[in-house]
Amino acid sequence: MRPRALAVFVVMISTACAGGSDKATDTTRQASRGGIDLTGAGATFPQPLYSKWVQVYAAKTNQRINYQSLGSGAGVKQLSEGTVDFGASDSPMTDAEIASAKGGPVIHIPTTLGAVVITYNVPGLTQPLRMTPDVVADVFLRKITKWNDARVAAANPGVTLPARDILVTHRSDGSGTTFVFTDYLATVSPAWAAGPGRGKTVSWPEGTLGGKGNEGVAAQVKQTEGALGYVELAYAMQNRMSVAVIRNASGAFVAPTISSITAAAAGVADTLSESSDLRISIVNAPGANAYPISSFTWILLYQRQPNAVKGRKLVDFLKWAVTEGQQHSAALHYAPLPDRMAAGVQKKLEMVTIGTP
Q1: Mean pLDDT confidence for 266-290
Q2: Going from the N-terminus, what domains does the chain have, and what CATH number goes with each?
Q3: What was the pLDDT predicted at 241?
Q4: What is the pLDDT of residue 17?
Q5: Which residues, 6 or more positions from 205, have their beta carbon under 8 angstroms from its beta carbon?
Q6: Which bin fits 324, alpha (ψ -120 to 50), beta or left (φ > 0)?
Q7: Helix (H, G, I), strand (E, B) or coil at 244
Q8: How big is the chain by its Cα radius of gyration, in Å?
Q9: pLDDT class for 274, splitting at 50, 70, 90?
Q10: Is residue 262 exposed (0-12), middle (13-18) or buried (19+ Cβ within 10 Å)?
Protein backbone atom coordinates (compact mmCIF):
# COMPACT_ATOMS: atom_id res chain seq x y z
CA MET A 1 0.00 0.00 0.00
CA ARG A 2 2.80 2.43 0.64
CA PRO A 3 4.38 3.95 -2.47
CA ARG A 4 8.12 4.41 -2.19
CA ALA A 5 11.01 4.85 -4.51
CA LEU A 6 11.96 1.66 -6.32
CA ALA A 7 13.74 -0.62 -3.91
CA VAL A 8 15.39 -3.89 -4.84
CA PHE A 9 16.24 -6.15 -1.95
CA VAL A 10 18.91 -8.69 -2.85
CA VAL A 11 19.74 -10.37 0.42
CA MET A 12 22.80 -12.57 0.73
CA ILE A 13 24.88 -13.96 3.57
CA SER A 14 27.89 -11.96 2.45
CA THR A 15 25.99 -8.65 2.64
CA ALA A 16 23.39 -9.20 5.34
CA CYS A 17 25.46 -7.52 8.06
CA ALA A 18 27.67 -5.19 6.03
CA GLY A 19 27.15 -2.12 3.89
CA GLY A 20 29.08 0.01 1.48
CA SER A 21 28.84 0.80 -2.22
CA ASP A 22 31.45 -1.78 -3.24
CA LYS A 23 29.51 -4.60 -1.64
CA ALA A 24 26.26 -3.31 -3.13
CA THR A 25 27.93 -3.39 -6.54
CA ASP A 26 29.16 -6.93 -5.92
CA THR A 27 25.62 -7.95 -5.02
CA THR A 28 24.29 -6.48 -8.26
CA ARG A 29 26.95 -8.35 -10.24
CA GLN A 30 26.06 -11.60 -8.54
CA ALA A 31 22.40 -11.01 -9.32
CA SER A 32 23.19 -10.38 -12.98
CA ARG A 33 25.08 -13.69 -13.12
CA GLY A 34 22.00 -15.54 -11.94
CA GLY A 35 23.05 -15.79 -8.30
CA ILE A 36 19.47 -15.28 -7.06
CA ASP A 37 17.38 -18.22 -5.86
CA LEU A 38 13.96 -16.54 -6.12
CA THR A 39 12.63 -13.33 -7.66
CA GLY A 40 9.48 -11.47 -6.70
CA ALA A 41 7.82 -8.11 -7.28
CA GLY A 42 4.78 -6.17 -6.19
CA ALA A 43 3.25 -4.44 -3.20
CA THR A 44 5.07 -1.59 -1.53
CA PHE A 45 2.99 -1.75 1.67
CA PRO A 46 4.81 -4.82 3.10
CA GLN A 47 8.24 -3.76 1.81
CA PRO A 48 9.89 -3.22 5.23
CA LEU A 49 8.64 -6.58 6.51
CA TYR A 50 9.58 -8.45 3.35
CA SER A 51 13.01 -6.85 3.45
CA LYS A 52 13.46 -8.06 7.01
CA TRP A 53 12.25 -11.52 6.09
CA VAL A 54 14.63 -12.00 3.19
CA GLN A 55 17.56 -10.83 5.29
CA VAL A 56 16.76 -13.16 8.18
CA TYR A 57 15.93 -16.05 5.86
CA ALA A 58 19.18 -15.58 3.95
CA ALA A 59 21.15 -15.79 7.19
CA LYS A 60 19.20 -18.88 8.19
CA THR A 61 19.19 -20.84 4.92
CA ASN A 62 21.63 -19.12 2.51
CA GLN A 63 18.69 -18.69 0.11
CA ARG A 64 18.83 -15.42 -1.85
CA ILE A 65 15.65 -13.53 -2.70
CA ASN A 66 15.31 -10.49 -4.95
CA TYR A 67 12.12 -8.57 -4.16
CA GLN A 68 11.25 -5.40 -6.10
CA SER A 69 8.61 -3.17 -4.49
CA LEU A 70 6.99 -1.84 -7.64
CA GLY A 71 3.35 -1.74 -6.55
CA SER A 72 0.52 -4.24 -6.44
CA GLY A 73 -0.43 -3.79 -10.08
CA ALA A 74 3.12 -4.54 -11.20
CA GLY A 75 3.20 -7.61 -8.97
CA VAL A 76 0.09 -9.03 -10.58
CA LYS A 77 1.35 -8.16 -14.06
CA GLN A 78 4.80 -9.69 -13.63
CA LEU A 79 3.46 -12.88 -12.09
CA SER A 80 0.86 -13.15 -14.86
CA GLU A 81 3.56 -12.79 -17.49
CA GLY A 82 5.84 -15.29 -15.75
CA THR A 83 8.75 -12.89 -15.31
CA VAL A 84 9.00 -13.47 -11.52
CA ASP A 85 8.72 -16.49 -9.26
CA PHE A 86 6.12 -14.79 -7.06
CA GLY A 87 4.06 -11.63 -7.03
CA ALA A 88 2.76 -9.54 -4.15
CA SER A 89 -0.40 -7.50 -3.91
CA ASP A 90 -2.47 -5.63 -1.35
CA SER A 91 -5.64 -6.33 -3.35
CA PRO A 92 -6.43 -9.89 -4.47
CA MET A 93 -6.41 -10.82 -8.12
CA THR A 94 -9.79 -10.96 -9.80
CA ASP A 95 -11.12 -14.12 -11.42
CA ALA A 96 -10.44 -12.54 -14.81
CA GLU A 97 -6.83 -11.77 -13.88
CA ILE A 98 -6.28 -15.31 -12.66
CA ALA A 99 -7.83 -16.75 -15.82
CA SER A 100 -5.43 -14.75 -18.01
CA ALA A 101 -2.28 -15.65 -16.03
CA LYS A 102 0.15 -17.63 -18.17
CA GLY A 103 1.13 -20.15 -15.52
CA GLY A 104 -2.32 -21.44 -14.64
CA PRO A 105 -4.18 -21.28 -11.30
CA VAL A 106 -2.83 -18.77 -8.78
CA ILE A 107 -2.77 -19.28 -5.01
CA HIS A 108 -3.11 -16.30 -2.67
CA ILE A 109 -1.08 -16.53 0.54
CA PRO A 110 -1.91 -13.95 3.24
CA THR A 111 1.39 -12.94 4.80
CA THR A 112 0.59 -10.22 7.31
CA LEU A 113 -2.09 -7.74 8.32
CA GLY A 114 -2.21 -3.99 8.15
CA ALA A 115 -4.72 -1.18 8.48
CA VAL A 116 -5.82 1.99 6.77
CA VAL A 117 -6.38 4.88 9.16
CA ILE A 118 -8.11 8.23 8.95
CA THR A 119 -5.74 11.04 9.83
CA TYR A 120 -6.69 14.67 10.38
CA ASN A 121 -5.45 18.13 11.29
CA VAL A 122 -7.76 19.78 13.81
CA PRO A 123 -5.79 22.00 16.21
CA GLY A 124 -6.91 22.03 19.81
CA LEU A 125 -8.23 18.47 20.05
CA THR A 126 -6.87 16.76 23.14
CA GLN A 127 -8.24 13.28 22.45
CA PRO A 128 -8.58 11.11 19.34
CA LEU A 129 -11.50 11.96 17.09
CA ARG A 130 -14.26 9.33 17.06
CA MET A 131 -16.06 8.53 13.81
CA THR A 132 -18.94 6.25 12.87
CA PRO A 133 -19.07 4.35 9.55
CA ASP A 134 -21.87 6.49 8.13
CA VAL A 135 -20.00 9.67 9.00
CA VAL A 136 -16.77 8.39 7.41
CA ALA A 137 -18.63 7.57 4.20
CA ASP A 138 -20.55 10.83 4.07
CA VAL A 139 -17.44 12.92 4.72
CA PHE A 140 -15.78 11.34 1.68
CA LEU A 141 -19.02 11.62 -0.31
CA ARG A 142 -18.98 15.34 0.61
CA LYS A 143 -22.39 15.10 2.29
CA ILE A 144 -20.76 16.22 5.54
CA THR A 145 -18.56 19.24 4.92
CA LYS A 146 -18.11 20.94 8.33
CA TRP A 147 -16.16 19.72 11.36
CA ASN A 148 -18.92 20.84 13.73
CA ASP A 149 -21.62 18.96 11.82
CA ALA A 150 -24.15 17.51 14.29
CA ARG A 151 -23.32 13.92 13.24
CA VAL A 152 -19.59 14.40 13.84
CA ALA A 153 -20.29 16.10 17.17
CA ALA A 154 -22.65 13.30 18.28
CA ALA A 155 -19.78 10.80 18.33
CA ASN A 156 -17.56 13.24 20.24
CA PRO A 157 -19.55 14.49 23.26
CA GLY A 158 -17.85 17.24 25.21
CA VAL A 159 -15.44 18.02 22.35
CA THR A 160 -15.43 21.48 20.81
CA LEU A 161 -15.19 21.14 17.05
CA PRO A 162 -14.42 24.11 14.79
CA ALA A 163 -16.97 25.58 12.40
CA ARG A 164 -14.65 25.15 9.45
CA ASP A 165 -14.65 23.10 6.27
CA ILE A 166 -13.44 19.52 6.21
CA LEU A 167 -10.84 19.40 3.45
CA VAL A 168 -10.83 15.81 2.18
CA THR A 169 -7.64 14.38 0.67
CA HIS A 170 -7.39 11.06 -1.17
CA ARG A 171 -4.75 9.13 -3.08
CA SER A 172 -4.40 10.37 -6.65
CA ASP A 173 -2.43 7.27 -7.69
CA GLY A 174 -3.71 3.72 -7.89
CA SER A 175 -2.92 1.86 -4.68
CA GLY A 176 -3.78 -1.05 -2.44
CA THR A 177 -4.42 1.49 0.33
CA THR A 178 -7.24 2.96 -1.74
CA PHE A 179 -8.57 -0.51 -2.53
CA VAL A 180 -8.81 -1.38 1.18
CA PHE A 181 -10.34 1.97 2.11
CA THR A 182 -12.94 1.94 -0.66
CA ASP A 183 -13.70 -1.72 0.09
CA TYR A 184 -14.58 -0.56 3.60
CA LEU A 185 -16.66 2.38 2.38
CA ALA A 186 -18.57 0.18 -0.08
CA THR A 187 -19.21 -2.35 2.69
CA VAL A 188 -20.65 0.13 5.20
CA SER A 189 -22.34 2.57 2.82
CA PRO A 190 -24.86 1.58 0.10
CA ALA A 191 -24.48 5.09 -1.36
CA TRP A 192 -20.72 4.59 -1.72
CA ALA A 193 -21.19 1.10 -3.18
CA ALA A 194 -23.55 2.53 -5.79
CA GLY A 195 -21.31 5.51 -6.51
CA PRO A 196 -17.51 5.49 -6.48
CA GLY A 197 -17.42 1.80 -5.52
CA ARG A 198 -14.26 -0.13 -4.63
CA GLY A 199 -10.95 -0.30 -6.47
CA LYS A 200 -7.30 0.73 -6.55
CA THR A 201 -8.55 3.89 -8.26
CA VAL A 202 -12.07 5.35 -8.15
CA SER A 203 -13.79 8.53 -9.31
CA TRP A 204 -13.74 10.65 -6.18
CA PRO A 205 -16.56 13.13 -5.51
CA GLU A 206 -16.01 16.72 -6.50
CA GLY A 207 -14.46 18.93 -3.86
CA THR A 208 -11.78 16.47 -2.75
CA LEU A 209 -8.03 16.91 -3.12
CA GLY A 210 -5.57 14.37 -4.50
CA GLY A 211 -2.14 13.51 -3.12
CA LYS A 212 0.32 11.05 -4.61
CA GLY A 213 1.21 8.24 -2.26
CA ASN A 214 0.97 8.20 1.51
CA GLU A 215 3.51 11.00 1.42
CA GLY A 216 1.28 13.24 -0.69
CA VAL A 217 -1.82 12.67 1.43
CA ALA A 218 0.16 13.17 4.64
CA ALA A 219 1.68 16.41 3.36
CA GLN A 220 -1.77 17.80 2.51
CA VAL A 221 -3.12 16.88 5.95
CA LYS A 222 -0.10 18.13 7.91
CA GLN A 223 0.09 21.45 6.11
CA THR A 224 -3.62 22.29 6.04
CA GLU A 225 -5.73 22.96 9.12
CA GLY A 226 -9.08 21.23 8.78
CA ALA A 227 -7.75 18.57 6.42
CA LEU A 228 -8.56 14.87 6.63
CA GLY A 229 -7.28 11.90 4.64
CA TYR A 230 -6.36 8.22 4.79
CA VAL A 231 -2.97 6.54 4.99
CA GLU A 232 -1.75 3.17 6.17
CA LEU A 233 -1.11 2.67 9.87
CA ALA A 234 2.65 2.18 9.83
CA TYR A 235 3.11 5.43 7.92
CA ALA A 236 0.86 7.35 10.32
CA MET A 237 2.71 5.99 13.34
CA GLN A 238 6.13 6.73 11.91
CA ASN A 239 5.08 10.31 11.17
CA ARG A 240 3.25 10.89 14.49
CA MET A 241 -0.04 11.76 12.80
CA SER A 242 -3.39 12.06 14.57
CA VAL A 243 -5.53 9.00 13.91
CA ALA A 244 -9.30 8.59 14.32
CA VAL A 245 -10.98 5.89 16.40
CA ILE A 246 -13.65 4.13 14.32
CA ARG A 247 -16.86 2.42 15.45
CA ASN A 248 -16.76 -1.21 14.36
CA ALA A 249 -19.48 -3.68 13.38
CA SER A 250 -20.06 -4.59 17.03
CA GLY A 251 -20.69 -0.96 17.97
CA ALA A 252 -17.40 -0.42 19.80
CA PHE A 253 -15.06 2.48 19.04
CA VAL A 254 -11.70 0.86 18.33
CA ALA A 255 -8.29 2.39 17.72
CA PRO A 256 -5.96 0.83 15.14
CA THR A 257 -3.41 -1.25 17.03
CA ILE A 258 -1.55 -4.49 16.41
CA SER A 259 -4.01 -6.41 18.57
CA SER A 260 -7.15 -4.84 17.08
CA ILE A 261 -5.95 -5.55 13.54
CA THR A 262 -5.17 -9.17 14.41
CA ALA A 263 -8.63 -9.42 15.99
CA ALA A 264 -10.18 -8.47 12.66
CA ALA A 265 -8.75 -11.66 11.12
CA ALA A 266 -9.57 -13.97 14.02
CA GLY A 267 -13.10 -14.70 12.85
CA VAL A 268 -12.05 -16.20 9.53
CA ALA A 269 -9.47 -18.61 10.95
CA ASP A 270 -11.95 -21.23 12.12
CA THR A 271 -13.57 -21.47 8.70
CA LEU A 272 -10.43 -22.20 6.71
CA SER A 273 -9.79 -25.49 5.00
CA GLU A 274 -7.29 -26.69 2.43
CA SER A 275 -9.69 -25.71 -0.35
CA SER A 276 -10.54 -22.25 1.02
CA ASP A 277 -10.13 -19.26 -1.24
CA LEU A 278 -7.89 -16.94 0.74
CA ARG A 279 -8.90 -13.81 -1.16
CA ILE A 280 -10.64 -12.68 2.01
CA SER A 281 -11.84 -9.20 2.90
CA ILE A 282 -11.90 -8.48 6.62
CA VAL A 283 -13.14 -4.89 6.53
CA ASN A 284 -15.91 -4.24 9.05
CA ALA A 285 -15.17 -7.63 10.61
CA PRO A 286 -17.25 -8.84 13.57
CA GLY A 287 -15.80 -8.82 17.06
CA ALA A 288 -15.76 -6.24 19.82
CA ASN A 289 -12.01 -5.72 19.51
CA ALA A 290 -11.70 -5.68 15.71
CA TYR A 291 -10.45 -2.55 13.96
CA PRO A 292 -12.81 -2.16 10.98
CA ILE A 293 -10.44 -0.98 8.22
CA SER A 294 -8.01 -3.91 8.40
CA SER A 295 -6.71 -6.05 5.57
CA PHE A 296 -4.38 -8.82 4.56
CA THR A 297 -1.63 -8.42 2.02
CA TRP A 298 -0.85 -11.39 -0.20
CA ILE A 299 1.99 -13.20 -1.92
CA LEU A 300 0.84 -14.73 -5.19
CA LEU A 301 2.27 -17.92 -6.68
CA TYR A 302 1.30 -20.49 -9.25
CA GLN A 303 -0.25 -23.68 -7.95
CA ARG A 304 1.82 -25.65 -10.45
CA GLN A 305 5.56 -25.13 -10.02
CA PRO A 306 7.32 -26.77 -13.01
CA ASN A 307 10.80 -25.97 -11.69
CA ALA A 308 11.14 -28.42 -8.81
CA VAL A 309 14.09 -26.63 -7.22
CA LYS A 310 12.55 -23.17 -7.27
CA GLY A 311 9.14 -24.49 -6.34
CA ARG A 312 10.43 -26.18 -3.20
CA LYS A 313 12.45 -23.11 -2.19
CA LEU A 314 9.43 -20.86 -2.63
CA VAL A 315 7.08 -23.08 -0.61
CA ASP A 316 9.67 -23.52 2.14
CA PHE A 317 10.19 -19.75 2.34
CA LEU A 318 6.46 -19.06 2.57
CA LYS A 319 5.96 -21.71 5.26
CA TRP A 320 8.70 -20.03 7.27
CA ALA A 321 7.26 -16.55 6.63
CA VAL A 322 3.79 -17.38 7.97
CA THR A 323 5.18 -19.11 11.08
CA GLU A 324 8.60 -18.12 12.41
CA GLY A 325 8.72 -15.00 10.26
CA GLN A 326 5.66 -13.55 12.01
CA GLN A 327 7.76 -12.64 15.05
CA HIS A 328 9.22 -9.74 13.07
CA SER A 329 5.84 -8.15 12.23
CA ALA A 330 4.92 -6.09 15.29
CA ALA A 331 8.21 -4.19 15.54
CA LEU A 332 7.57 -2.90 12.01
CA HIS A 333 3.92 -1.97 12.77
CA TYR A 334 2.35 -4.98 11.05
CA ALA A 335 -0.02 -7.39 12.78
CA PRO A 336 0.97 -11.07 12.79
CA LEU A 337 -1.42 -13.66 11.43
CA PRO A 338 -3.50 -15.41 14.10
CA ASP A 339 -2.05 -18.85 14.83
CA ARG A 340 -5.04 -20.65 13.39
CA MET A 341 -4.83 -18.52 10.27
CA ALA A 342 -1.16 -19.42 9.83
CA ALA A 343 -2.08 -23.09 10.15
CA GLY A 344 -4.73 -22.69 7.44
CA VAL A 345 -2.24 -20.98 5.15
CA GLN A 346 0.21 -23.85 5.58
CA LYS A 347 -2.54 -26.26 4.52
CA LYS A 348 -3.08 -24.10 1.45
CA LEU A 349 0.60 -24.37 0.57
CA GLU A 350 0.26 -28.16 0.54
CA MET A 351 -1.86 -27.71 -2.60
CA VAL A 352 1.18 -26.54 -4.55
CA THR A 353 2.37 -29.22 -6.97
CA ILE A 354 6.13 -29.11 -7.35
CA GLY A 355 7.93 -30.27 -10.47
CA THR A 356 4.65 -30.52 -12.43
CA PRO A 357 4.41 -28.63 -15.73
Answers
A1: 79
A2: 8-114+295-354 (3.40.190.10), 115-259 (3.40.190.10)
A3: 94
A4: 31
A5: 140, 141, 142, 195, 196
A6: alpha
A7: coil
A8: 21
A9: low
A10: buried
SS3 8: strand
Q: Please choose, from the candidates 157, 115, 165, the residue with its C-alpha nearest in 3D space to the C-alpha of residue 132.
A: 157
Residue type, 240: R
Secondary structure letter of residue 93 according to DSSP: P
Q: What is the number of other CB atoms lying within 10 angstroms of the CB of residue 28?
A: 12
For strand 209-211 and strand 106-120, is the pairing parallel, antiparallel, or unpaired? Answer: unpaired
Burial class (CB in 10 A: 0-12, 13-18, 19+), 217: buried
Residue type, 267: G
The pair phi, psi for residue 295, each rounded to 5°, is -160, 155
Band (pLDDT 50/70/90 cuts) for residue 271 is: low
Report the first-to-last Cα separation within the chain, whole angstroms: 33
Which class for 149: exposed (0-12), middle (13-18), buried (19 or more C-beta within 10 A)? Answer: middle
